[in-house]
Amino acid sequence: MTVNSIAEYIDQYDGEVQQRLLTVYELIRSAAPHTAVESISWRMPTFKLDTEPLFFFTAAKRHISFYPTAEVIAHFDSDLDGYGTTEHAIQFPHNAPLPIELIRQIIDWRLQQLPSGNS
């Protein structure tokens, strides 16, 4: 199924997974600059500022993947113990509560790294 918006992406899931996606979306949306653009890129919900990707997120069978950039993952390395990570993604397992405060801190730190005038 091809989706054309973040809302369509989230709506294709049910129950807890849908709620987890919605929570991540709302955390990003509430913190992102008003000029950030929402889209689907690489089949994932995406927030961009001008042409720079800010965040991607997606649902997988066992987790929510959150892509805040490799620099952010490196910066928060010690806070990510217990979560699966790759160079570009953090995996929040469905069988554990979403770490909302950690996600909020990651979003805020990422936005603080933007050039002046973009945050």
Automatic annotation (TrEMBL):
Residues 18-109 form the YdhG-like domain. SUPFAM superfamilies: YdhG-like. InterPro entries: YdhG-like (IPR014922). Pfam families: DUF1801. This is YdhG-like domain-containing protein.
